[in-house]
Write a structure and sequence with these properties.
It is built from 24 helices and 17 strands. With 612 residues, the chain is α+β, with helices and mostly antiparallel strands.
Length: 612
């Protein structure tokens, strides 16, 4: 039975930029059944199409845009795109996600996945118009900011095309460069640099083909149930709609888990000034959704009018941006945070990594390791909004000291060897916005995440700090916490392979997703448990890729500060992260050996030996 008409388009589109060759291959039903799509499909393709130790900037490195069976349907939040490649920031597997309309449009054009290899001999744009696929010169776009490029493409091709673009940072192969679509960003890990290495400035897609599901009547019923469930959730129906993702900032601060001054503490004395409530009162003028089928509308448009930098309009800032450019740098100036967000978006860089870099620089400055002269006259004191903006601009443009700082915290720390204890990174990726000494599960999640420090691979903070699913003690670090993390990780892998927005999990559970997947695909998963098994299979496949690339137990670490410096205040005062016992229990529960390598019997049990 063909996959077409069962939520899938049934085809993978391949583009070789070096040879100007374009072709399609059918999506194998067995792969779809075992891995769904999105993250799972992308990792499998990356594993199969690359050799060990392939350089992320090699023409042979694939840049994969994968969507799932629910993409383009009436399922809530089902228009996101999963980007998979090898991270130039970490050397690990990279999967990054972007909202907007690109994913749905790719499905409407008749494809479940776009795989780009090779390198163009000049700046180019890939144009996909249903079956008509062209590689076109785009020298006029090279050097433009993300917003300028999107505007120029729509002026040339028409509003019907949905785009993915990189900014100047991606063009110069910055390891913190993201890929942008309609103000949304696949930000973490450097996918924008991989795209830039291929001389590919943009992708534009337009499609006209409908998406058909296996059992339309049952699917429509279950999609309606999912929408209703999201509308009944306090989080997804009210607080996120009003205050965006920043609705949690004050709660996280009260729990002592809001990273402040490069994770020196978990409480910021000016948290009120950078809360979602204050942004709502002063800067946000409009709410919007990534797509027409998203009932959450967590995105916010801010208008800032400030004599320092004039009037700007920016998407955000969201919680992670506010933490990274705000509390983590000791900055409480909302206008400055929003403007720094704007500069990051224009030049195409990840706000979490930028904030982590600047916070690290500020601590280096505080401790006398780096001087104002080295920073080209910048007085990098905690809370200095002017210093924040100047450093963001230098990093975004790759100018002066910025060309060194954009390499990331891990590489900066190599120049200042006494700073490693407070270099807040895992596998080379800067830490996101939850203090793990106040939420032990997040410490485990950061350490074991396949793409480096990441809060979205197993979001235990929802239960530890926000009371989701009845809550779980944030300070325990026993088997209960480990199994909770594994449960969250497997569930999220299913969401990322479906491909749905992470925020559906603030209102839905796997039950509602399972109820949509079955009538969409016609797959005979017997229960939610079997669908979650798909998530376990994908997590293990991701681990196998990283093991092949030389990663293992020694890379599942946390910064020394989190392991040895007790948290100075808050409910978790005196705590460190007890990583070692959790890590051992995690490997055991996963069926991996003591070095974190999946055992052969586990690989067979998950049927991975059939496809790799």
């Amino acid at each position: 039975m063909t996959l077409k008409g069962r939520g899938y388009a049934g085809k993978i589109l391949y583009v070789d930029l070096t040879k100007s060759k374009i072709w399609t291959e059918p999506l194998d039903e067995k792969i779809a059944y075992l891995l769904l799509g999105g993250k799972g499909l992308g990792i499998w393709l990356l594993y199969k199409l690359t050799r060990k130790n392939e350089n992320p900037f090699s023409p042979n490195m694939p840049l994969i845009f994968a969507i799932g069976p629910l993409t383009g349907t009436s399922a809530p939040t089902s228009s996101k795109t999963c980007i998979v490649t090898k991270s130039p920031a970490t050397g690990t597997l990279l999967d990054s996600y972007c909202g907007g309309f690109f994913g749905s449009e790719l499905k409407y054009a008749g494809y479940d996945c776009l795989v780009i290899i090779g390198k163009a001999n000049e700046p180019s744009i890939l144009v996909i118009d249903d079956d008509n696929v062209d590689i076109r010169p785009a020298g006029q776009l090279w050097g433009l900011t993300t917003l300028e490029a999107e505007k120029e493409i729509k002026k040339t091709l028409g509003e019907g095309f949905k785009t993915m673009v990189i900014g100047p940072a991606g063009e110069r192969l910055s390891p913190i460069a993201g890929v942008f679509s309609n103000l949304r960003c696949a930000g973490r890990g450097g996918a924008g640099a991989v795209m830039g290495s291929k001389k590919l400035k943009a992708i534009a897609v337009r499609g006209s083909q409908p998406v058909h599901v296996y059992d339309e009547k049952e699917f429509n019923k279950m999609a309606w149930v999912a929408h209703r469930t999201l509308r009944m959730s306090e989080s997804t129906a009210r607080t996120m709609r009003i205050y965006g993702t920043a609705n949690i900032l004050l709660v996280v601060n009260e729990a002592g888990a809001l990273p402040t001054r490069n994770f020196q503490t978990g409480r910021f004395e000016d948290a009120e000034e950078i809360s979602g409530e204050r942004f709502r009162e002063t800067l946000w003028v409009r709410d919007f959704s990534c797509s027409l089928n998203c009932p959450i509308a967590c995105s916010k448009i801010a208008v800032v009018n400030d004599k320092r930098f004039g009037e700007i309009t920016v998407d955000g800032p969201d919680y992670e941006t506010i933490f990274s450019l705000g509390s983590n740098c000791g900055v409480s100036d909302r206008n400055a945070i929003a403007y720094a967000n704007y500069i990051c978006d224009l030049y195409g860089i990840d706000t979490i990594s930028v904030g982590g870099i600047i916070a690290f620089v500020m601590e280096l400055y505080e401790k006398g390791h780096i001087t104002s002269e080295e920073l080209e006259g910048i007085d990098a004191k905690w809370g200095n909004a002017e210093a924040l903006i100047r450093l963001v601009e230098k990093i975004a443009k790759g100018e002066g000291i910025g060309s060194f700082l954009e390499l990331g915290v891990k590489r900066i720390a190599e120049k200042y060897p006494n700073s490693k204890a407070y270099a807040m990174e895992v596998k080379g990726l800067e830490l996101p916005g939850y203090e793990p000494r106040a939420a032990q599960g997040m410490g485990l999640c950061y350490a074991i995440s396949e793409r480096g420090a990441c809060h979205l691979r197993a979001y235990t903070a929802g239960g530890e700090l926000l009371g989701h699913l009845g809550g779980i003690d944030p300070l325990i670090y026993d088997r209960t916490k480990v199994m909770y993390a594994i449960d969250r990780q497997d569930e999220k892998a299913v969401i990322d392979s479906s491909v749905l927005c992470f925020f559906t999990l603030f209102g839905l559970r796997l039950k509602e997703v399972y109820q949509m997947i079955l009538p969409c695909t016609g797959f005979n998963y017997e229960s939610e448990k079997e669908l979650k098994r798909v998530g376990e299979r994908i997590i293990t496949l991701a681990r196998l890729y990283n093991v092949r690339e030389g990663f293992g137990m020694s890379n599942d670490y946390l910064p020394e500060r989190l392991l040895k410096e007790p948290l100075p205040e808050g409910p978790a005062k005196g705590m460190v992260v007890y990583l070692e016992p959790m890590l051992k229990e995690y490997y055991k529960a996963r069926g991996w050996d003591e070095n974190g390598i999946p055992k052969p019997e586990k690989i067979d049990e998950l049927r991975l030996s059939e496809i790799i």
